[in-house]
Write a structure and sequence with these properties.
Elements (H helix, E strand, L loop, with lengths): L22 E5 L9 E9 L5 E7 L2 E6 L4 E14 L5 E3 L4 E4 L4 E16 L1
Antiparallel strand pairs: 1-2, 2-3, 3-8, 4-8, 5-6, 5-7, 5-8
Length: 120
């Protein structure tokens, strides 16, 4: 029997009652109108682009073309998501959605949005 130990990655825990301290991530580069400011914290960083965390962005319109898959859960705020080839959807606190790699369209943030995300 070996005495070697195997270490596993640490668990990232974010309780509903927690309000994590967010870092200033600067202006949203996808904004199509007035400057939108972003902040966030990365809870886990994997290989390549894989990561999970908390992202917050101030109100305004933006245009996106995703080069990764993204799973999103809205914690606060609201926005209308409109795919180039589909109908708009209003999302807000408690809503969860998935956006596949290659998706393109607009996010019109009505009030500051805070989301939990997983990018893979």
């Amino acid at each position: 029997m070996s005495n070697d130990t195997v270490s596993a990655p640490s668990m990232a825990l974010l309780r509903t009652s927690d309000t994590p301290t967010l870092e200033d991530w600067g202006p949203c580069l996808k904004a199509t109108g007035e400057q939108m400011n972003t902040s966030g914290t990365i809870l886990w960083q994997g290989e390549g682009d894989a990561q999970t965390g908390v992202w917050e962005c101030t109100a305004g319109p933006s245009r996106w073309l995703l080069d990764t898959n993204e799973f999103v859960h809205i914690v606060a705020g609201s926005m209308t998501i409109t795919p180039d080839d589909g109908s708009p959807a209003l999302v807000g606190p408690g809503d969860t959605f998935f956006v596949p790699k290659g998706w393109s369209g607009t996010w019109d943030i009505h009030e500051t949005v805070r989301k939990l995300y997983v990018i893979f």
